[in-house]
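User: Can you recover a sequence for this backbone? Please restate the input before giving your answer.

Assistant: Of course. Working from this structure:
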């Protein structure tokens, strides 16, 4: 069992990389006082635009740029409604998820009929995203959030936005900056999902990663160390799933797929009521 688990661990780390990027992006925006439930839709949109850009250019680099562009459009849409128009963040995020699922599903079926998505998709040959997600991004975000004036003000927007406004700084600009950082990370996550982990786009291919990312941010107490730990635990649960599949071939495949999500749910139940969110999280 241990040997099989260790063999499955590298695969679990790679499979958890889009999730970690989503966690890092959501941590930044929640530190600024925004709850973005639309990260599932943002990642799904990025996955599709990455594939379309890669197919049109036959370049994986252009594909990743397409993923970034797709995530940026969704982030700006969310920001206009929540930051500028002060719409309810939960409702807006939910609407974006439904919109992204519907639009990408519709386009997928329409483009399949026109044979566009049947073309070969360039894939990432050398995996540079894993060290970016697990090493470079956490170090850079830690430096920006906790060692710069900008990071201090951004975190203050999530704790006491009135004080930031009183100091003459724009809460709106800092929250838009947080959304742009999230869009960058979510664009990488969606593009990596479709151009590396998969050989193209499929409907609802994010498989709930956005909602798992939300739970990991809470588990990690809105800190990068906790985010890394929570994602690592999810990766271990995924490795356990792969190990169980290898050992017990007679067990229903769909039951084993639920293992990482059950573990995440149990972790959340264990910490419910024991964490303190940013004081102004979700406030308009």
């Amino acid at each position: 069992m241990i040997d099989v688990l260790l063999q499955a661990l590298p695969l679990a780390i790679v499979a958890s990389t889009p999730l970690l990027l989503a966690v890092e992006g959501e941590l930044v925006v929640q530190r600024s006082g925004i709850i973005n439930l639309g990260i599932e839709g943002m990642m799904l949109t990025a996955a599709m635009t990455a594939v379309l850009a890669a197919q049109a250019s036959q370049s994986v680099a252009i594909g990743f740029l397409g993923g970034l562009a797709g995530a940026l459009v969704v982030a700006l849409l969310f920001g206009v409604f929540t930051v500028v128009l002060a719409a309810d963040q939960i409702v807006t995020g939910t609407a974006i998820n439904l919109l992204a699922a519907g639009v990408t599903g519709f386009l997928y079926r329409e483009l399949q009929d026109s044979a566009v998505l049947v073309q070969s998709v360039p894939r990432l040959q050398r995996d540079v995203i894993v060290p970016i997600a697990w090493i470079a991004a956490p170090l850079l975000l830690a430096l920006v959030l906790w060692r710069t004036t900008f990071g201090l003000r951004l975190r203050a927007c999530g704790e006491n936005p009135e004080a930031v406004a009183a100091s003459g700084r724009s809460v709106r600009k800092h929250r838009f900056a947080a959304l742009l950082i999230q869009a960058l990370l979510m664009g990488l996550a969606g593009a990596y999902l479709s151009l590396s982990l998969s050989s193209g786009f499929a409907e609802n291919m994010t498989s709930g990663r956005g909602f798992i990312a939300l739970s990991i941010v809470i588990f990690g107490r809105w800190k990068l160390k906790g985010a890394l730990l929570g994602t690592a635990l999810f990766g271990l649960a995924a490795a356990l799933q792969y190990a169980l599949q290898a050992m017990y071939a007679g067990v229903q495949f769909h039951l084993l797929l639920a293992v990482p999500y059950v573990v995440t749910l149990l972790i959340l139940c264990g910490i419910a009521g024991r964490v303190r969110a940013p004081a102004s999280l979700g406030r308009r």
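That completes the design. The two ends are 50 Å apart (CA to CA).
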